[in-house]
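Morning!

This is the sequence you dropped in the shared folder:
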Amino acid sequence: MKRGYLQISFAWMFAIIVGIFILFLAIFATTKLIKTDQTIIDSKTAKEIGVLLNPLETGFETGKSTSLILPSETRIYNKCNTDGEFGRQIIKISQKSFDKWTETDVDVGFSNKYIFSENYVEGKKFYIFSKPLDFPFKISDLIYLTSKDKKYCFLDSPENIKDEITSLKQKNIQVNNCSEDSIKVCFNRNCEINVDYNGKYVEKDKSRMYFETDALMYAAIFSEKDIYECQIKRLMKRVENLALLYNDKAGLISQKECNSNLESELSTLNSLTRNLENSNNLNSINFLVEDINKKNDLTECRLW
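The structure's back. Tokens below.
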């Protein structure tokens, strides 16, 4: 009886151990499959966001806002690098699954997009608007990304800024009538984000970001400093290359006895933007940009 009892116990023990091992393998395989599926979903979502931004760059009316709604709580990570000829705009997505944020190493990159936001924005609904950057010719459309859950309130802003923000009709950006939980953007007083419209800089988190044109002012307001400075360098790479192209165009039309007289200035613009270190250098470049714009407007052979 004792030997039989021991044999039965061993058989049951062996079956339990095998069962636990099979169950472990099943759980492990399922977890890996879920992780793989979630990585695919995250990278696909990032690509779709990039595609959805295209209308903002091709005919989308300036000063109008659009929204992006995702099915689950999402973090959109905004990354930027300056490698290569034009650098890269990188989007990374993390979504909430079973009360945990997914982790993926998949980054989706674009060489022709410039998104300005915090390091990541979180929520289900996001607002997007864009403005073109002319410096002096059209460089690109700048895209501003914010979460519905994060409110901004502009105080004492110039009339042109107030009118533009009002026309956006973007529910998380207010003018003067601020809610208690909104981030204050001030032009004539001290608050979380301070804009010196005459000095052309935005001060936030104890650091300054310098701007030229309202397009870059909005970029500085809605961005983290590291993203803003990186995107400025990318934009100046584009200016550098476009200046060369317009210089070539100037040479071609001069052969047809139609001289723009801008070759020297465009060469200088190419050199200055190539050596730009940070946004603090924008002011010195802007003097040249304004001069080039005036000359191009007055010449009979306009380059753009």
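Headline: The longest helix spans residues 2-52.

More detail when I'm at my desk.
O.
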